[in-house]
Design goal:
The complex is a heterodimer of chains A (188) and B (373). Chain A has 188 residues and is of the alpha+beta class. Chain A folds into 2 domains: 34 residues; 124 residues, 2-Layer Sandwich (Alpha-Beta Plaits), CATH 3.30.70. In chain A, 21% of the residues lie in helices and 15% in strands. Chain A has 3 helices and 6 strands, in the order αβαββββαβ. The longest helix of chain A has 26 residues. The N and C termini of chain A lie far apart (79 Å). Chain B contains 15 helices and 8 strands. With 373 residues, chain B is an alpha+beta fold. Chain B is globular. In chain B, the strands form 3 sheets. In chain B, strands 1-2-3 form a 3-stranded antiparallel β-sheet. Chain B starts with 7 loop residues before the first strand and ends with a helix. Classes of the chains: A alpha+beta (188), B alpha+beta (373). At the A-B interface, helix 1 of A face helix 2, helix 5 and helix 6 of B. The complex binds iron/sulfur cluster (2 copies). The site of one iron/sulfur cluster (SF4) has 14 residues of chain A, from loops. One iron/sulfur cluster (SF4) binds next to helix 2 of chain A.
Amino acid sequence: MKRYFYNIWETITTLMIGLGVTFGHLLRIRKGNVTLQYPEERWPQPQREIGFNLDRYNVIRSRLHVDIDDCIGCLQCSRACPVDCIKIEFVKVDKGLDIGTTSNDTKKRLLVTRFDIDMTECCFCNLCTYPCPEDCIYMTGGPNSRKHPIDYEYSTYDRSDLIFRFSNVDPDQVARLTGQNELKVGGK
Amino acid sequence: MGVNKTEEMVLNIGPQHPSTHGVLRLKVQTDGEIVTSVTPVIGYLHRCFEKHCENITYQQVIPFVDRCDYIASMNNDFGYVLAVEKLLGIEVPEKVEYIRVIMAEMNRIASHLLALGTFGLDVGAFTPFLYMFRDRERILDLFELTCGARLLYNYMWVGGLSHDIPVGFVEKTYEFLDYFEPQIDEYNNILTFNKIFIERTADVGILPVDVAINFGVTGPNLRGSGLRWDLRKDETYSIYDRFDFNVPVGQGIKGSVGDSWDRYWVRVEEMRECVKIIRQALDMMPRDGDVKAAVPKRIRPPQGAIYSRSETPRGELGFYILSDGKPKPFRLKMRSPAFTALSVLSEISQGWMISDVLAILGSLDIVLGEIDR
Ligand code: SF4
Ligand code: SF4
């Protein structure tokens, strides 16, 4: 009998303590305590100016972007990718032909005819951005936002729109530069 | 019961059920409302992790390890890189060790918050779930600041880290710990010592310590049964021997030792210990050093096999790696703590009501990504 009433008493007191906690929260609604009204408000991105060399600091996971003019077609990025979602094809240009240099003053020897990244397959592991010798593949936004701003929503109506094609070389150009119509295509 | 026995009925819980914490199907044999047997059906989330690892390099395995126990990715990474480093025989710099411990313990807090919150949700307490997720969010923010990702980090690399901690991280972490410690008392007030919660969980699903050992149950589930076994203390790896922390065990405060409430309580107490460890690690961490100094250019372990284990929020995570001297593992086997925890479910839930089975399942804190792999 005593036990019975003790249980009732304990239930009421612990319930009151719990309600006190929730009531306390009601009284001090802090910032970040309530739901964000999404289209009007956005979750803040963490601050990025945090003391690294910004050109080499690649810490963000968003859409991949390639500065295709800087790419030398070395395939390092596609080899690093665990899910093989970077597809690169290139053609060798004839010796003596100049197809320009990269921002790091590396002479380009290969013409990248295909550079596709299937972002539907990408697992955002960031592994591809580290080995690039020219630092030309990176996640958009953050410290790279002066090169390429972040795509916050990063959504499309069609899944095929998430396959990004970066190569800007057309077949005419390839034929002209390599002097051959039959292309010997290398790469993955 | 005898006379009151009714015709037995098979009840399927899941694969789409909020209380199964993923895609798990429970075939529950019931006699009225009493459960006579539970058969977990797993495999809905099978992604061929182990087979897949044979075709990718050691470095590329890390994103996949992340996806096994997706709630405590840092701890999984930690276990994996420890195994590969042991195979390669490399030492990592001091600073890396400290950052790894900090990250692993932070993720342990985040994981326990999720476990406790969803456990509360399973037995009908909605508010604590929201509070715990709000605080977990702060940890995820810190992770996002550090490595850009909120859930699947790929932060720990073999021999180092993908990058250094950002400026201001240490201060922000101290700030978080100061904020978080009083929150634990708040959880206790709102959920742990709530009479309704105690009635639902105390004395329910008692896991005796000998059964736990026979089934290979580890982690907080085993400690909830009263055995003080923690790999961080008993088989120290990394630099855990430098920190002063306790290993909480279940004492049967509200019921008997090894009940669901004890498993819950061990997790609450463990969060306090994590806070202690993180504080000490932040104090002792060397402020400068290159976190990539020991990262090998190509990971090509010598021929041989290695078994290495570490303590994740769910228990003992082991990696058995067989190397044939190539850049890809010949065979990789993962010992998953959640798998053994699930296997004990049928043993301890016989004779309880259907709603108790869900409470017991919640208290075991399983992650299906790790069970199915
Ligand atoms: S982020 Fe990872 S998965 Fe995505 S393209 Fe780069 S390497 Fe591949
Ligand atoms: S690693 Fe860089 S330079 Fe090499 S193929 Fe990839 S994007 Fe181009």
